[in-house]
Amino acid sequence: MDASLNPGRLFGMMTAYQQTAALKAAVDVDLFTAIGEGVNTASALAARCNASERGLRILADYLTVQCLLTKQGDQYSLTAESGAFLNRHSPAYVGAMSRFLAGPQILAQFGTLTEAVRKGGVASDARGATADQYGGWVDFAHAMEAMMGLAAMQIAGMVNGPEPGPLQVLDVAASHGLFGFQIAKQNPAAHITALDWPNVLEITQANAARWGLTSQVSTIAGDAFQVDLGGPYDVILLTNLLHHFDFAANVALLKRMKAALKPGGRVFTLEFVPNEDRVSPPGSAVFPLVMLASTPAGDAYTFSQLSSMFSEAGFAKSEQFPVIPTPETVIISQ
Fold this sequence. Notes:
Elements: H1 8-14, H2 16-28, H3 31-36, H4 42-49, H5 53-65, E1 69-72, E2 75-78, H6 80-85, H7 98-101, H8 104-111, H9 113-119, H10 136-143, H11 145-160, E3 167-172, H12 178-186, E4 190-196, H13 198-211, E5 217-221, E6 233-239, H14 247-260, E7 261-271, H15 282-285, H16 288-294, H17 303-312, E8 318-322, E9 329-333
Parallel strand pairs: 3-4, 3-6, 4-5, 6-7
Antiparallel strand pairs: 1-2, 7-9, 8-9
């Protein structure tokens, strides 16, 4: 065997779940926020975080090795990274995302990934993330707003343009509502109709009130494949939705969207779009594994595949625009 070969990277992959578990535990007990407030020894952290001193010491030492904390003597401090993103007092806080990304539904699905590979789709239950009122979408709505901010602002700018005017917008699978809310925030003449499951829309409506946008937001509860969509609309938002379904299902959905649009109306789709080789760029190329673990037939589609879907659904053209610095792409179709 080549003496230069080292199995260290493989060992790291086999134990990477430990990093996920440690980070989620630290967020759950509010460790980073406590340290940011100046509570910085294991004994003091134990009292502040309602945990054992031994547990806090071992967890904090582990996170120090992972470069999310620093340690001098028995005192811990935040790094620039953990201070910016994992302290609840920071405006850039993203720790809540662990509720969804490392939540019980996703962990259960990845726990049966071998079976999903053999089957060709989610193994833990029949429909996974596409099930009616799937419980994971409540966690998603609570947790993922912080991750969507940059994309939402960029899409809102594309939708409203330099001279915003009256707009009727349908936000399909609205979840936290951020994509529609950013449009409404920039454009007081925009009205947003948020479509999602009833349990998720409770969060959407609460967030609309928090944003002061209740008068600009209405809701439709139900299945986007079946419910009356209302309309017609100037703009329809399909953010992180198409990857849950196969090609034929997406064409059927897009035909419904086309019928709900005004003449000249546009659909704004946000997706992970891999290159035609399907192994680059990394951020989009790895996403199909999530769909394999969590859906019966979902995937990340190339731009040519997405263009074909829209074409079959009756749209004349589709254009793609990167959402920098995120790994996602906006496709505008009309």
